[in-house]
UniProtKB/TrEMBL annotation:
InterPro entries: AmpC-like, Beta-lactam-related, Beta-lactam/transpept-like. This is CubicO group peptidase (Beta-lactamase class C family). It comes from the Bacteria. Residues 1-24 form the signal peptide. It comes from Saonia flava. Keywords: Signal.
Amino acid sequence: MKVFLFSKPFVIVATILFFQFCHTANSQFLESKIDSLLESKYRSTAPGAAFLVAKNGIPIYRKAFGKANLELNVPMRPENVFEIGSMTKQFTAIAILVLVEKGMLDLDDEILKFIPDYPSHGKKITIHHLLTHTSGIKNFTNMKALRDISKKDLTPLELIDFFKNEPMDFNPGEKFKYTNSGYFILGYIIESVSGITYKDYIEKNIFQKIGMESSLYASHSKVIKNRASGYHYRDDYINKMYISLTLPYASGSIMSTVDDLLKWQEALNQNVLVSQNTINKAYTNYTLNDGEYIDYGYGWHLKKINGVLSMEHGGSIFGFKSMGVYIPSEDVYVIGLSNCDCNSPTKITKEIAALVINEIYLNNGNKN
C-alpha cells in the first residue's frame, strides 16, 4: 500500500485554495438566488429596478433589471438615477443632527421658535416630535385638497399654511403616526437656521462632502445624466403624473443611485457627517409618553429580519419606489430602487437581506 506524504507548505496552499473555492461557490450560489428573485419580479420588457448588496462597505451584488425608459427601449443600468421619495427623510434627519452638533438647534426646541404663528393649540411640539412622527400634525399628503395645489410651485411657508390649521390627530408624544408634514417643517427649520435653501444645504453639506456625485434635489427641467423615467400602471404602463417638487420637499424630493446610497451608508458608519453619539440618536428606538416603543428613530424604522436588528426606510413618489435596509451586526446594506410605483422593492429588499444573513450564518457555522 502506498502512503502519500505531503509537505506542510503544500497542505497550507491546498487549504487556502479549498476555502477560496468554497467562498466562490457560496458567492455564486447567493448571486444565483438573488438573480432568481429579481428576474421573476422585474421583467425585461417592463419598468425595472437597480439593486445593490454590500458587505463591510464592499458591493457583493450590483445589477439592474427591466427598462429605464419604455419609449426609447433603454435597458436599466445600476448607474441610473431614481427619485427616492421618503428615503429623503434620512437626509433631513441627519441635516438636523448636524445643526444640533453645531449648537444651532436643540432637539427640544419648539416649532414656535421657527414658525411663531403656528397653531400649536397650547401643545409643545418639538423637533424630536417631528423627527419621530409623534407630533400629532396631520399628514398633508392625505388631504383631498392636495390635488388642487399639486402642480403649483409653493414656498415652504405657503405649503405649511396649507396644512397648519388642520385639527391635530393627537397630542404630541401620545401616538406614532407617519406624517410627511413633520419632515416638511424640518426642511423649513433647516432653511431658517442655516440661512440657505434646503436644496443647497443638502447638496453642499452632504452630497458634495461625501462624494455623492449623482445625487441631487429632484428637478423636472434639469437634464440629469442617467435619469430613469418613472411610470404608473393603469391597465398598461403610463408616464408618471406631474407634481411640483416643492410639495415633497424635505420629506421626499431627493434623487440618487444605488452606488451613492452606499456612499451615504458608509459615511454614516464612519462618522463623516456626525459623531457616533449623534448617529446613535438617529438609531434609537424612541418611546411614547406612556413608555411604549415606536420602532422608529430619526429617519429610520427599527425592525428585525430573521431576529436580527435592521435599520430601514422605504420611499414612494409618483413613478418611483425605493427601499434601503442596513443590518448593523453584519454590516450588510441592501438597496433597491424601482422606476414604477406599481412594483415596490420593499418586500424583496428585505428578502434579499434575509438571504444574505442566512448565508453569513451558514458560512460561520452558527445559524440558529
